[in-house]
Design brief:
It is a single chain. By secondary structure, the protein is an alpha+beta fold. It folds into two domains: 128 residues, GIY-YIG endonuclease; 98 residues, no CATH class. Helix content is 41%, strand content 15%. The strands form two sheets. Strands 1-6-2-5 form a four-stranded antiparallel sheet, sandwiched between helices. The protein has a two-stranded antiparallel sheet with strand order 3-4. The mean pLDDT is 89.
Length: 240
């Protein structure tokens, strides 16, 4: 069967029961969500409060893609041990009193961003762009392969729900789950994503099986494709 007959479709995490019961590959994305309440003007004696509110929304979304700190260890002279963690420093990170001062270039870029948010129409346009950007311009959060796409996506949803419920009662565990969560669902919940934002795009391989391409061949090909896609796109919530 020709490869150009491959089909793809997408499902919100809320709707994974509609995914095909077929083998295939899938990728999770997180979409930007903003309502008129987020971008409409909110007058106050201090000015338009919606500007800071929308910036917080952008920072939260940027945080979904923030990589974990990198641990470094080394040896110095006379056997001295050096170790520490490096964190990615970006203008959209939440302000930290202990952080070093940002560079002039970062301050300039942040000022340009703030200027693009100074009216409700500009904020509306920004929200529309970001909502349309996923998955066209965005990186996948996670890439996987499954013999039954519906069951696999349901498992992700169960993992998310379990972690979300736990973290609601134990918010102090969020950093630990974010760094060491054993499942995609747990790691996504620890980054404060919502089911409404999460959607899976799937490539259904169910129609590709024939005399020349057996189910075993499909499974091996899909696993090889998954391995390659991980190396190409480095999904932020994938298995490291």
């Amino acid at each position: 069967m020709a490869l150009n007959t491959l089909s793809h479709s997408r499902y919100s995490m809320l709707d994974v029961d509609e995914a095909p019961e077929a083998p295939g590959l899938y990728a999770w994305y997180v979409s930007f969500r903003a309502s008129p309440h987020d971008w409409k003007m909110q007058p106050s004696p201090q000015g338009d409060q919606a500007i800071d509110g929308f910036l917080r929304l952008l920072r939260r979304y940027a945080g979904y893609y923030e990589p974990l700190p990198i641990s470094l260890r080394g040896r110095g002279s006379y056997g001295a041990a050096w170790e520490g963690d490096l964190e990615l420093d970006t203008p959209l990170r939440q302000p930290n009193e202990d952080a070093d001062a940002s560079s002039a270039e970062e301050d300039k870029r942040l000022a340009i961003l703030m200027n693009s948010l100074d009216s409700q129409e500009r904020r509306r346009v920004m929200a529309t762009i970001l909502e349309m950007a996923s998955p066209v311009f965005s990186s996948p959060l996670y890439i996987g392969v499954a013999e039954n796409l519906r069951e696999r996506l349901r498992t992700h949803r169960r993992d998310f729900t379990k972690a979300y419920d736990w973290l609601r009662e134990h918010p102090e565990d969020a950093a630990e789950v974010r760094a060491k969560g054993k499942t995609f669902g747990a790691r996504a919940a620890a980054r404060n994503m919502t089911m409404r934002q999460l959607e899976a795009w799937v490539i259904d391989l169910g129609d590709q099986e024939d005399a020349a391409v057996t189910l075993k061949h499909l499974r091996h090909t899909a696993q090889s494709a998954e391995w390659l896609l991980h190396r190409l796109y480095a999904p932020i919530l994938g298995r490291q």
